[in-house]
Write a structure and sequence with these properties.
Blueprint (H helix, E strand, L loop, with lengths): L1 H64 L3 E6 L3 E6 L5 E6 L2 H9 L7 H10 L1 H8 L4 E7 L2 H14 L6 E6 L1 H9 L4 H13 L5 H5 L3 H21 L9 H9 L1
Parallel strand pairs: 4-5
Antiparallel strand pairs: 1-2, 1-4, 2-3
Helix pairs in contact: 6-7, 7-9, 7-10
């Protein structure tokens, strides 16, 4: 009997020891987990902060480098300047070979659009072209009509002392149509007039022509149309195309 009681008490003692050991193990494990969890949480803080600044930085990058307006410039070199909301040039796109040569000679990235246009107008090649009675068109394009008008007014004031330079504005849809044909907006408007006069005219032909050559061709085709209509007794109504070209500039 005594032996059995001793065995029972020994088992009870063993179970208590097991409980104590188990309890200590669980406490240690839980403590280590909590410490580990805490370390993970502390490690995550700088990671989350870094991610936050990356997102903010990317958003700021997009905010700065997204053009909100376009300035299309045509003589024969054709360029398009992407202007951001801070009035700075964030992209320069050449639309023909002469445009690429002009782009390569300029340093207008991140300049204000006023300084960029000034640099273009003061370029030796451009000065030489304008002195030969060539014509330059400067078109402001964008969704914000009020902003476009403001930019147009500034450009008109800025270029008022330049001969053979005209400024006007257009909407984004027309520019997208122009780009689909590989043309700048100024030449696209001229191309529409030319196609009414001669449907065989192609965008590729217009792309390589100077604005003066385009105007002369329109004038020539308009006069030919007027002469033909006069010969048919139609009193020269076809000569209205000259007015269409004028309207395209406006």
């Amino acid at each position: 009997m005594r032996s059995k009681l001793t065995d029972v008490f020994d088992r009870i003692h063993a179970e208590e020891e097991l409980k104590d050991k188990t309890k200590k193990y669980l406490q240690q494990t839980t403590h280590q987990y909590q410490k580990s969890k805490k370390r993970v949480q502390l490690w995550l803080i700088p990671a989350v902060i870094s991610l936050f600044f990356i997102i903010i930085g990317f958003g700021g990058y997009q905010f700065y480098f997204t053009p909100t307006s376009i300035i299309s410039i045509d003589v024969n070199p054709s360029l398009e300047l992407g202007i951001n909301r801070f009035d700075q040039v964030v992209s320069v796109k050449a639309l023909n070979q002469d445009g690429q040569a002009l782009k390569d000679s300029l340093n207008i990235q991140f300049e204000s659009y006023q300084d960029a246009v000034k640099q273009i107008l003061e370029n030796e090649d451009i000065q030489s072209i304008l002195s030969q009675n060539e014509e330059m068109s400067i078109v402001v394009v964008g969704f914000d009509t009020e902003k476009n008008t403001q930019m147009l007014t500034e450009l008109e004031t800025f270029t008022s002392g330049q001969n053979n330079v005209s400024c006007y504005q257009a909407n984004q849809t027309e520019v997208e149509n122009a780009h689909s044909l590989g043309l700048s907006y100024g030449k696209y408007k001229a191309f529409l007039v030319l196609q009414e006069l001669d449907s065989s005219i192609t965008p590729e032909q217009v792309q390589q022509m100077s604005m003066r050559e385009i105007r002369n061709l329109i004038s020539s085709l308009s006069n030919n149309t007027a002469d033909a209509q006069l010969a048919d007794g139609q009193n020269g109504k076809g000569n209205r195309h000259g007015q269409k070209w004028k309207n395209a500039e406006e």
